[in-house]
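Re: the multi-chain job from yesterday

Posting the exact lines I submitted so nobody has to dig through the queue logs.
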Amino acid sequence: MKKTNIIILIGIAALIVGLLVFSVDFSTYDTIGSAKNKKGKFVHLIAKLDKSQPITYDPINNPNYLSFYAIDSLGEKTKVVYHNSKPGDLEKSERIVLKGKMENDYFDCKDILLKCPSKYKDDKKVLEKNMKDQTASN
Amino acid sequence: MIKFEGEHLLPGQIGHFFVILALIASLISLISFFQASRSNQIEDKKSWLNFARISFGIQAISILIIFSTIFYICYNHYYEYMYAYKHASKELETKFLLACIWEGQEGSFLLWSIWHAILGLTILSIKKEEYKVTWQAPVLTIISMAQFCLMLMILGIYFFDVRIGNSPFTLTRNEIPAPIFSQPNYLTFLKDGMGLNVLLRNYWMVIHPPILFLGFASTLVPFAFAYAGIQTQKFGDWIKPVLPWALFSACVLGVGIMMGGKWAYESLSFGGYWAWDPVENASLVPWLILIAGLHTMLIYNATGHSLRASYLFAILTFIFILYSTFLTRTGVLGDTSVHAFTEAGKAINIMIGLFVLVFAIPMLTLFLINYKKIPTIIKEEETNSREFWMFMGSLILFISSLFIIIITSIPVYSKTPFLKDLIFKIHNGPLAMPEDAEFIYNKVMIMVAIFLGLVTAVTQYLKYKSTPLQYVKSNILKTIVVAGVLTTLIFIFYPFTFQKHGIGFLIAIYIAFFFSFYSVIANAMYIPLVLKNNFKSAGASLSHIGFSLMIAGMLISSSNKQVISDSKVNGINLPMSKDPMTKKQEDPTENLTLIRQVPTRMGEYEVTYLNDSSGHEKGRHFYHLQFLRKEDSLTREKFVLSPDVYQMKDNNMSSNPDIKTYLTRDIFTYISFAINEERNTDTAQFKTIEIGEGDTGYYRNGYYILNKVEKNPSDCKFAYNPKSIALMADITFYSKDSMRYKATPLIEADSFGINNYDDTLFAQNLFVKFAGVSDNHKIKLGIKESDSLIDFVTVKAYVFPYIILVWIGLIIMAFGILLSVIKRAKINNNLAAIILTFITAGLIYMFIFAN
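And the result, structure tokens for all chains:
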């Protein structure tokens, strides 16, 4: 067999793999409203913790059940259920990315990414706030 | 204009001066190295070269001074400087001061340029005639250009309204608009800096960035040599001198990547060393291309084939280093990474993007223009030749690297003009990773692992040009029989149990394991069979053994990873752990709550949360968990793991795992939830009763007996001498579930008065106080029963079997590559022995013992 032929074969194999991979249902970033229109589909929600609603987490009875409410920039709300432990700084997060599926009356969350203020040291606003807190406490 | 008090402005001025000096010196050396490389007259060339060397030297010294200045500022906590304020803090241990320098964007670029400078100086110091006449000028042209770009990044000069780069010497008061800066004595209020991110407070963070950046910096050398090949129009001559450099780069970058993995394993709570995170992928991709290039260079060296591919791979390696920097440093990945990305200013986005273009486009254009001139052999390789299969291996490495980077770049597509519109049209929104992102990588990479295992096992037994059939048969047969028998035994006695992705994937794991193991055996047998135990030439075999062992270790440790904190494993599937919404038990139930002093079953261990303690640093809390394994009521194994939770000043939390390492497995645990410092306040009251020795009392959950009252006890808890005045009550509590608990409250009188040492039975929510002594040999005992004081932690715990193979494999690979560097660079034996011993000892210590 010629080298060129084999390279072509490998190329075709790579192409098939590529097609297979991209035929996977890629997820999208959604608002709560648009996610409600595609129930059961895996989406990424960008939202905030709704601080007016309680967070339910009782680790002594069940450390694998957390529920809270999320609100997005358009003001839409949803209940979120997460079968895992409560991320330590959930309450302090400024923004959360929720990965999961919208069900009938709640969002079934598989993974939570928190965006916390202090992680962005290069953000001027954070620095300002930190400076204010620090000098006020003196 | 306010006159500020107590500022130390001199170091900043010195630093800034040297940044400018380094910038100018690198520009001069760029121009003069370029002139030297173009000049045909020997005298003219020599004078340009001398000039260039001096300016490169000045540039190198300036960079070292800049670095020392930043270190000085951080070390002395000069918070008038933004860099110290942002990254340093007073409680920080000295060893982490270096880490806080590379936490920042500017510091890491500086580290990078230090390595460029050192590599450049090393190339300049090579005495070989060939280097002096041909290679130094063009290679250093490229290095100087990179230095110029990096210095621009840390310059921080305004060009009209846009600030070019970020200077590490800016002043806090110029950066943050806050009212206190209107006071001349503002520094007296600025008592502490923001400090280093706690995730980075780990010794790996001190050692891993320098190694990784040396890896990044060293990929510039093959790129520069490729340029030199085109510039000098001696198209094939650069391969021989570049080989040791490419090998060196492969070794350092490979070790650097795995150090990152070990850091993640030891200090991040994502439960493993690899998560296909963009930051990890970004350094893996150039490494894969580099390895591909390394093999095509070897092919060219032996046969004259694959020169064009060598050019392409050498160029792409560095381009992908730049692209990776762009991906991970500019915040373009936004929401997809667990790593704390900095949202740097727009200027830095444009800058890094610009450098990608400055290096990538001209070099690729140069390559294409000269493509036809690069010599190639028309006759194709035989399929039974070594070079053919080496090339196939390179091709697979290259394709797999493209695959990884295409998937990693998914968030970028939705930000690219035109492509963005198309994506929005199809998906109605920005594209995101699918549900099981890791599996997308794993299912493709397992195929790659199978193929690589096969080619690394067989190819060495083939000869260049063409191989006699008899030779192949006998050697390959021998190795495949040995490997086949051994792997079958492993599969029988230690089957894989990974079910998550179905039987097909499990079979793929078995096949991949067989081929990686086969590769280990075949390469190990190559040393006696073919090399006749000549270890100096065994570099390639050893690195292949290491690489395949690493893959085998990854396959075992991931597919037989056990979640021992999974409550289903423990058989305590409580009804209330059902989801009130869906009424079904769902994955993942990886968390388990441990109540203080109550032993809980976890896999084969009985785990007890003993107590907690605070660390040196404020806000750091260690939770001590005792793991006990019993067999026939004999204790077989007992150890304490102390994972910690770090409550930062800004109230963010970070959870750091603790690991018990054995040869056969690691037990890995971390705190997934812990209650805050401010515990619920307790409203219950002490109830005092009188009780004598041997008497019985009752409490809500059972009864207790006062065994005895001991005078001046001296045991493991208390140490009193006979002259003290202390009494300890020895009480046993019998709860309804027939558990026994011992309490030993104590009362003591000294010159200051009376002290009570209460005892707590967290498991029973009981507080026991020795309140005093009454008449007729009775004592007063205070008992408090509380509702709200359950002390607990929620943990996740995993067992990673044979994960040590991953680290051992890496060390063998690094050793093998180093051996090849030594052979190719013709380093003399004594020096070689010293280098090998020190580096290997260092790696063994870091990866296996230092924990």
